[in-house]
Amino acid sequence: MSTDKSPDQAAPAAATPISRPRGGLRPAARFQKSPSSKQRDVRPGSTVLRAALADELVAAALALRDMLEGAHLDEAIDHYTHEMPVASARAVRNMAYDATRQYGLLSHIGGQLNRKPPVPLLGALQALGVAQLIDARRPVPVIIDQTVRAVNQLPEGVAYPAAAGFMNATLRRFVRERDALIPPNLPDEARYNHPGWWVTRVRQVWPGQWEAILAASLDRAPLSLRANRRLGGQDEAARRLEAAGIGFRRMGVDGLVLEQPMPVEHIPGFAEGLVSVQDLGAQCAAQLLDPQPGERILDACAAPGGKTAHLLEMADCEVWALDIDPGRASIIMNNLQRSRLPLLPQSGQTLPRGNGGTVDAEPATTVRAAFGTDATMAASDRAAGQGHWPVAADVPDTDDPAQPAVTPAVHWGARVMAADAADPDSWWDGQRFDRILLDAPCSASGIVRRHPDVLWHRQRRDIATFSGTQARLIEKLWPLLRPGGTLLYATCSIFPEEGEAVVSAFVSKHPDCQWQRDVRLTGWPGWPRNGQLLPTRDDRHEHDGFFYALLSRHR
Ligand SMILES: C[S@@+](CC[C@H](N)C(=O)[O-])C[C@H]1O[C@@H](n2cnc3c(N)ncnc32)[C@H](O)[C@@H]1O
Questions:
Q1: How high is the pLDDT of residue 410?
Q2: Per-domain residue ranges for the chain?
Q3: Quick check: is 317 catalytic?
Q4: Which residue has the higher pLDDT, 22 or 518?
Q5: What separation in Å is there between the alpha carbon of 357 and the centre of ligand 1?
Q6: Is 302 labelled a binding residue?
Q7: Distance separating alpha carbons of residues 508 and 254, to the nearest angstrom
Q8: 53 or 355, which is more confident?
Q9: Which of 75, 197, 311, 524 is deepest in the core (most CB within 10 A)?
Q10: What b/e string do you get for 62-81 counting C-beta neighbours within 10 Å, with b at 16 or more?
Q11: Residues in the ligand 1 pocket, defined by CB under 6 Å
């Protein structure tokens, strides 16, 4: 995890199914071309605290350009800032996030300023310059000067000979004609900084709340924490924060919201797993599913494992944590390790152990087929460069007198697998689950305030594609639930096509399924009966957008 996240974006990347960079990221900016940075060492650990604004603008423009071409914004920013001083990397992150949050307006202004569209990188730099000029606190001459200097640092082949003049002229024109370029009657995309189809759809489906939803989605999300109940819970986390002089509010049963975001490495107890970063709306999942000791639970789409960890913090249960993406499955293990939660050995696997030896797991069963060769814990261990995984069956050497007695049989923890939840034949052992969490892949339209790039990656037709995948997953997983068991269907979407519609269609076809609408959650007096949490800045219920439906299977 990067250590240079800005206060705005201190949280590690949340679970988000937004698209991968298309064709990989571009080469890093050539900071050595900058006249200012030529004379200074701007690498981390050097005495230089900040690169020139022109350098920061180049890095932000590269990241914005890549984001518009399909890259994850966070990944792009990390890529272009890893050699920058921490303060500059933070400034780049803030500039790139701010520009992404107002890209509807910036692209509208660009359309007015430019006779023909500039090459994408020059257009991204212009958008960043305009974003800086829109902010009335910024000194206009410095912004224009540094943005023009930044043009001269763009990689060869991007900036044509007159590009600096073009940038200078268009930024000055923006300053002169600002009011005419930002009239009150802007088109929806520019006015609400969401794609036009998105605005139309939210207006249709949430007629009373649509403007509040769009506004809340453009907010900077606060840093919300989940306290680990096994390590002292909310009381202990609160005590540690108070001792460090960090302002916070307690929210719900396990939640704490910091007054000021900060890099996660600075949060007391984060490294030891006392707290994890998780939105308050996401914290509802484990509470709704209500795991009980001794139960066998399936977390079907689990990476990066926030909800898996919460389930295990709540009860001594066995959680099968699946994710189709082996790389993301290994992140589940990292997160469980940090939270001091045990991994159960996979069938047929040999796991590394704390004292450098190995633990032989039980003989191979059908579960073994779930793993590709790259997805075993040992392989993930190597990839992640970790020393060892905490294993519930962490058997000490019996010939070492310093070691305690042999650990009794494993009875709770996570079995992490890289597997397709929609293909149970490839991983399921035939024993039904007591509870299933289906946190299905979705549009991520509820978590825009944390991932504003989702706005510019999604297309209208994607919503129907996600609905189809969600319907398929719930159909495939229902038979794995024991009679009397409970399935929690969840998405981080605000579109009913991915929530209410998927569940209604499913319930209507399955007489053994009952939708439990009268759910009460401790700490949530206004829990919505339709299970749809909408993104809100309300102090009492501060959260992202989620949809939850609790389904019970008749005996
Ligand atoms: C919304 S995220 C899950 C977030 C996670 N539950 C958490 O709280 O940290 C959806 C995940 O589903 C995974 N996924 C998508 N299709 C899948 C499938 N067919 N089987 C298993 N996992 C899948 C994606 O790789 C992604 O990590």
A1: 55
A2: 7-186, 277-553
A3: no
A4: 518
A5: 32
A6: yes
A7: 35
A8: 53
A9: 311
A10: bbbbbbbbbbbbbbbbbbbb
A11: 15, 17, 282, 300-307, 322-325, 328, 420-422, 439, 441, 492
